[in-house]
Amino acid sequence: MNNEINYVQLSLIKKSQKYLKNCKKKGINIALSPFCDLTTWINSLGYHKLHLINKNKIFSVGYFRYLFSEIINIGRFKFDYYVYNDLPNKKKINIIYSYSWKKNFKKGIFFDDYFKVSSEDKNFFFILNSVDGFLPKKAKNCIIITRTKTFFNPVLILHHLLRKIFYKNFFHEFNSTNIFNEFVKKVVQNEFQDKKVNIFIPFENRPHQNAFILASNSKNNKNRIICYLHNMPWPFQLDMIYKKIRINKLLVCSNIQKKVFIKNYLWPKRIVQTTSSLRFKTLKNRKKTIFLPFDLTEDNEKLLDGFKVLISRVFFDLDNYKISIHPLKVFAKDHINFKKRLLKIVKNSKKNELKTKNTDPIIFSHPGGTATECLQVCKSTYHITTDKLHVFSRKIWNSIKISKIDRNVYKYVSKNTKFLILDKKNSIKNLI
Where are the domains of the chain? Predict the structure, then answer.
């Protein structure tokens, strides 16, 4: 069973490496292009491109749909940025490029969930990418970038089309992802001083993050770039493959993660360093929880059938389980409907009178860092997925025991493996 998963994942790493190398030869900036953003966890152009690479195909309906979406979205989004304060005129400037939501602001003070530091701390200046478009009336030590959805504007598409029409790699340039990348670069060019700065990023290898890094390197090639992978490890991390942009440090939160990045995803040893988590001080109890993925990219019927098989073979304490929707998807109709269908299956499931019932977590589809978090606090977890790219490979993660319960149902066991190093005393100030 795991031999097939090993083969699929390891061969896809090689195929993707070859694809990115060929793109680079053509003059494509692989750090910025959505065609090269090979994610496994979100429905996107890069997600569908990855599956085409995997199947040795050049076209699919999903691929065309998201290519069309990338083009149409050029005329559907307005970009702007708001300067609440200019960058401080100090010898040493520490800039955090991060995300923000309305919940992060209280009385004009921003608190960063990833680095656990607020804008009250004058050691840091924030450049924020507003996810929900929220702008506070007042704020300290920050600039906020907004990406607002508007009515379709054909003039905007025409404007960018005329700018890009003669580019060699037209589609890699003419898309909404790259237009936003250009705007992020513009913010850096307009607002950064020429003096050397320290830049901290909660890093996920996203194109806009890479655009920020490239722009800051261009502004001053002595700028110090510290990227921090704040997530716990997930099974197939191809989206984090090294794309050779200048980074001083990539901080990861476990030795096993460091080993995987160097061995499998081509990161140089000199760049990857281990630190205890800045984002997490403790881990939650994940027992009696069913987790839904960020995006429901798989066949829902097959996922639900897998759940039925699992609960018919393993006796869970389902009456006391809760269903957890990703925080950014709590209002998504697909996720709400999927939860309702799960609850219906639970309600109609046969009750058993066994005194001992399983309380291990159950995860659907792309598990993200939830899988390793569950393994660190619960030692075992169950995973339902139709996609071999979402399953742990024993060749990559040799400390995890994988057993197959049914066609799309897996059990993971890992004892005493630290996927995340915890230290309540660790602080971003230790990195300055």
Answer: 2-76+151-274, 78-144, 289-413
